[in-house]
């Protein structure tokens, strides 16, 4: 079994004789090769879509962000195996690779996902060509231009709305504070008058 290693930094050392190194190789082209049997990935969304598109079962090693969620979704559909990047060993990786390669269920599940993903009324390339030609036919298609391009910066960043909300908030706080002070003053004045009356009566 030939292993293709696509790397971007320094070349790893102590690799097996069946491993071929590529400093750079388009991942999509590599996955599209008919002899590709498995895909070791960090479970980024683009890699996941490419793996599904070409029907290649995956060994998923998520690192951060949405990758753990992507890996769980693929594993739950029986199209790959998720490994923990911190706890896994070389034996775990080897076992996972052998499982996704030799267990036919993984290939069948990823091919089912691939057929669902690729079953669409218009091919993406045809759709892209259609919209490019549409824009050319209609001289830039100004009717599709977002209205946000016609707003000034105050409207674009909603400065007027923010200012209104700030004024309303400060006004509410000011009225609330004044009301509290007025009530406190009334209560203290009333208690002071009552204490004065009680003192005068006692004298």
From TrEMBL:
Does this entry carry the keyword Chloroplast? no
Its recorded reaction(s) are:
glucuronate acceptor + UDP-alpha-D-glucuronate = acceptor beta-D-glucuronoside + UDP + H(+)
Q: Name one GO molecular function term.
A: glucuronosyltransferase activity
**GO CC entries:** endoplasmic reticulum membrane
Per UniProt, subcellular location reads as: Endoplasmic reticulum membrane; Membrane
**EC number(s) given by UniProt:** 2.4.1.17
Its domain of life reads Eukaryota
- InterPro entries, alphabetized: UDP-glycosyltransferase, UDP_glucos_trans, UDP_glycos_trans_CS
- Descriptive protein name: UDP-glucuronosyltransferase
